[in-house]
Design brief:
Layout: E1 7-15, E2 27-36, E3 58-61, E4 70-72, E5 77-82, E6 88-92, E7 98-104, E8 107-114, E9 122-128, E10 133-135, E11 140-141, E12 144-145, E13 151-157, H1 170-181, E14 190-196, H2 202-215, E15 222-232, E16 235-236, E17 250-251, H3 252-259, E18 265-272, E19 296-298, E20 308-309, E21 314-315, H4 316-325, E22 337-339, H5 340-354, E23 365-367, E24 375-378
Parallel strand pairs: 2-10, 13-14, 13-15, 18-19
Antiparallel strand pairs: 1-15, 1-18, 2-3, 2-4, 2-7, 5-6, 5-8, 8-9, 11-12, 15-16, 16-17, 19-23, 20-21, 22-24
Helix pairs in contact: 1-4, 4-5
């Protein structure tokens, strides 16, 4: 019989790379890199405001003129590598923020910007065309930055199982997350759905994910899946999981194959028993979710059980996730957006205080990937 843990809450935000072809004739790219005015001169090593910088503060464009509030990022290292071949080239931006990188394999590639003012490298998926050096596609309208990303939410809560005992909390937990992420107060461009109990079968969950995978159009899009229900080491239990074979569960590797075709960012936030195992790169599918394309935030370490708290009305971790999103409490730099990293930092501190001296505490965990500083919720 399969080994099981107890109840889990999972938030999944996805980011994945598509395939590409290898060209016969090298190509190249050129463009400009801009940063928020005043940040470019600050160093993360000096502890300045630039140390909290996220990807949303850096613009990579074909436009020669920086939009209002931005300036050229000078002497930034720009590296481009082909996804399939791994081969790449690099150059530095000049005083205008301009760069040109020739001799690249054509096809889907990753452009990376590194600079001392950035705490984390900025990455963007681009297409390199064979036989020519092309400008990057513009992302500005009338000289202003135009955010064209779309966020998709699938919220799942399973409290009353078909073949297994009921677990307390998931319906309330899923409602709380749905009320925040899918609310009109979330100013990210978004759409989503909520699946509960009988509507959250394995096939229904896969269909919901597939519907948004098919809608994804850009590398800046997000797919977010929140799951609350029974979980164990490297798996989630849908409504119709009997607990006897792996075929009726959703394993870490299987879930990854479902979201892999999505063209946008990938961040996985998990709260549940043994939930850190979804990113431990072992057991069922080696390296499942433990890749740069994903960020994984969990509510418990590998050998920990999550707790339901009657006073809080649900999972302790989900309660503080919800509290961190509500009224922008997790927004450490007060920029109106909450990232996965900010949510993790807030929840870790809140849970540490809540469980002070308690023997049955569990501790959040995060595998950062490359996109932990991408906004998952925007409240102004």
């Amino acid at each position: 019989m399969r080994r099981f843990g107890s109840f889990l809450v999972v938030l999944l935000i996805a980011s994945v790379l598509a395939g590409c072809s290898v060209p016969l004739i090298p190509g190249g790219v050129q463009g400009y890199v801009y940063i928020r005015t005043g940040y470019g001169a600050q160093s993360a090593d000096e502890g300045g405001e630039g140390a909290t910088f996220g990807e949303v503060e850096v613009l990579i464009s074909a436009e020669q003129t920086a939009p209002n509030g931005y300036e050229p990022l000078v002497d930034a290292l720009v590296h481009v590598a082909n996804v399939r071949t791994g081969m790449g080239n690099h150059n530095y931006t000049n005083f205008q923020g301009y760069f040109m990188i020739p001799n690249l394999d054509a096809g889907l590639s990753i452009l990376t910007v590194s600079h001392h003012a950035l705490r984390f490298d900025v990455k963007r998926e681009i297409q390199v065309h064979s036989g020519e050096v092309r400008w990057l596609e513009p992302i500005y309208t009338d000289g202003w930055y135009q955010d064209q990303s779309k966020t998709y939410y699938v919220i799942i809560g399973i409290e009353n199982y078909k073949y297994r005992d009921s677990v307390p909390g998931p319906l309330e937990d899923s409602w709380r997350m749905h009320s925040m992420l899918n609310s009109s107060g979330n100013r990210l461009s978004h759409e989503g759905m909520r699946l509960t109990d009988t509507s959250a079968t394995k096939s229904a969950i896969r269909s919901a994910i597939q519907s948004y995978v098919n809608k994804g159009k850009s590398s800046s899009d997000h797919l977010i899946i929140y799951f609350s229900g029974i979980s164990g080491i490297d798996f989630l239990s849908p409504y119709d999981d009997a607990g006897l074979t792996w075929n009726t569960a959703i394993t870490d590797g299987e879930l990854e194959t479902w979201v892999k075709p999505f063209p946008g960012k990938v961040t996985l936030i998990i709260d549940g028993s043994h939930s850190a195992t979804m990113a431990d790169g072992s057991v069922l599918w080696p390296q499942a979710f433990k890749k740069y394309r994903y960020t994984v935030l969990t509510g418990a370490q590998k050998n920990e059980q999550v707790n339901y708290d009657q006073v809080l009305g649900g999972s302790v971790f989900t309660h503080f996730l919800w509290e961190g999103l509500k009224n922008g409490k997790a927004d450490a730099n007060n920029d109106g957006e909450i990232t996965t990293r900010e949510l993790y930092n807030y929840t870790w501190g809140a849970m540490d205080s809540y469980y002070w001296g308690a023997p049955d505490k569990h501790t959040p965990f995060m595998y950062a990937g490359d996109h932990a500083d991408t906004a998952i919720y925007k409240y102004r």
